Amino acid sequence: MDVYSLKLFLEAARTCNFTKVAENFYTTQPAVTRRIKVLEKELGYKLFQRNHQGVSLTKEGELFLPFAQKSMETLNLGITTVNNYLNARKKTITIVSMTPMTSTFLPMIIDTFTRQNPDCGFEILRMFSTQIRKSLSEGNFDIYIGEESDIIVDDSWEKTIIKSNPLGLIVRKNENLDSLSEIKKFILEHHVFLLPEEDAPAMTRLSRKLLNSYGADFSLCEEISPVESIMFNIVSGIGYSFLPENNVLLKAFDLQYIPLDTNERLNMAIAYRKNAPSHVHKFSNMVINQIV
């Protein structure tokens, strides 16, 4: 008796509908029927009987149901127990990462690191600026990767600052803006989508500063998060945004970065506790080296 067939039986007993079971398990109704028939053949009795409303449990099915439920509960408890044991043996690295810039490179670095260090696991936390500062004082995470202005550390932390490209206008590929006058006119006539103040305050402040320098109407601005949503809005021709140049994101969404007459930039900070375990130092250095 395989676990999958047992799960199908329990779901069928709950829904009394093989088609619904198929939908919930991303399979077909005939496949569910075949697996139930194999299970019934193995047991030696019918579990379901068909009627005009769907299926219902036979008397044998009703008697078998509580034991199947108990078996599945015991099995799940066993799986959870083993997983907890394995996770306890892992060296967990807790990272606070809130900047959109990290979404393009952090997953790849984590993948490389875990291949080289299979005993290490990761926990990625998303926090607002005020939460980061509170958690920092309480020592609730190992590494911070985000905007420099969103973290203030003391001598117990090692911090590396990596300068990003200046903020530029992110638009669709078919937008032809060849001069600063065309860019200024474009900004004044279109919506510019910003990241929320709580989510990326430095990004918002710099964006508003740029808009103010161009004399833009702030009523045309909207706050949207995360950065993927902003990209979809740009692709759809709904809005635009100020972001540092990021070739991975630009290529993924088929957008273009237009430099502006500004040197406003978002600097990234990577900080980790000096007394953190060696694997935390090792991963932090890998992130720094990869980005630089």
Automatic annotation (TrEMBL):
Stored Pfam families: HTH_1, LysR_substrate
Origin: domain of life: Bacteria
Domain HTH lysR-type: 1-58
Keyword Protease: no
GO molecular function: DNA-binding transcription factor activity; transcription cis-regulatory region binding
Keyword set, alphabetical order: DNA-binding, Transcription, Transcription regulation
Database matches in InterPro entries: LysR_HTH_N, LysR_subst-bd, WH-like_DNA-bd_sf, WH_DNA-bd_sf
Family classification: Belongs to the LysR transcriptional regulatory family.
Name of the featured protein: LysR family transcriptional regulator
Species of provenance: Candidatus Eubacterium avistercoris
Lineage, top ranks: Bacteria, Bacillati, Bacillota, Clostridia, Eubacteriales
